[in-house]
């Protein structure tokens, strides 16, 4: 049995060709049968992030930055919010010390949408891992026709980018990350 935080599935050294283990001479039927889903289910078990206990990851010094678009039509944003809230419960209040989650207003699945979908979460993560500087916000931009038309801070959940009431609603400098309410 794998210890907490370790993979519970090791893919075979020579994975079968897709459909090779399916009925009808290796051709995938129009509707997947149980025989066809065995390998996919094992892959899903490895890739699906559903275990909120990240204690082993945290103990090894791991850091996570996760984001989700509020306008994602492929996967409901509530899935990510639920995972983060379960991680908070499982890993206690120090969870933001190793795991930061950012909701992106107006963003579709991974990119696109109606608002600031251009941002560099990887550099924020590298800065955190290599220099110990946790991202209190991540700068994001809306780019249209090769031109930046709006900037906003992405705030660690549940904080919200709150307008100061004076500056331009298209400039990140007019916003601060604040708790909801």
UniProtKB/TrEMBL annotation:
It comes from Muricoccus pecuniae. One of its GO terms (molecular function) is carboxylic ester hydrolase activity. Residues 1-28, 159-181 are annotated as: Disordered. Keywords: Calcium, Disulfide bond, Hydrolase, Metal-binding, Serine esterase, Signal. The keyword Phosphoprotein does not apply. The lineage of its organism: Bacteria, Pseudomonadati, Pseudomonadota, Alphaproteobacteria, Acetobacterales. Residues 18-27 have a biased composition (Basic residues). This is Tannase/feruloyl esterase family alpha/beta hydrolase. It comes from the Bacteria. Pfam families: Tannase (PF07519). Belongs to the tannase family.
């Amino acid at each position: 049995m794998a210890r907490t935080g370790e993979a519970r599935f090791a893919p075979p050294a020579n994975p079968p060709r897709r459909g090779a283990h399916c009925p009808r001479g290796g051709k995938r039927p129009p509707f997947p049968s149980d025989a066809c889903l065995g390998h996919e289910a094992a892959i899903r078990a490895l890739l699906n992030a559903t275990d909120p206990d990240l204690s082993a990851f945290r103990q090894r010094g791991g850091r996570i930055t996760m984001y989700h678009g509020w306008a994602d039509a492929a996967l409901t944003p509530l899935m990510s919010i639920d995972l983060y809230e379960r991680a908070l419960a499982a890993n206690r209040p120090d969870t933001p010390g190793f795991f930061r989650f950012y909701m992106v207003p107006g963003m579709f699945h991974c990119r696109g949408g109606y608002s600031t979908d251009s941002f560099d979460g990887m550099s924020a993560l590298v800065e955190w891992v290599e220099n110990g500087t946790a991202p209190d916000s991540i700068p994001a931009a809306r780019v249209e026709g090769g031109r930046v038309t709006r900037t906003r801070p992405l705030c660690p959940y549940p904080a919200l980018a709150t307008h100061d009431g004076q500056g331009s609603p298209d400039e990140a400098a007019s916003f601060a990350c604040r708790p909801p309410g």
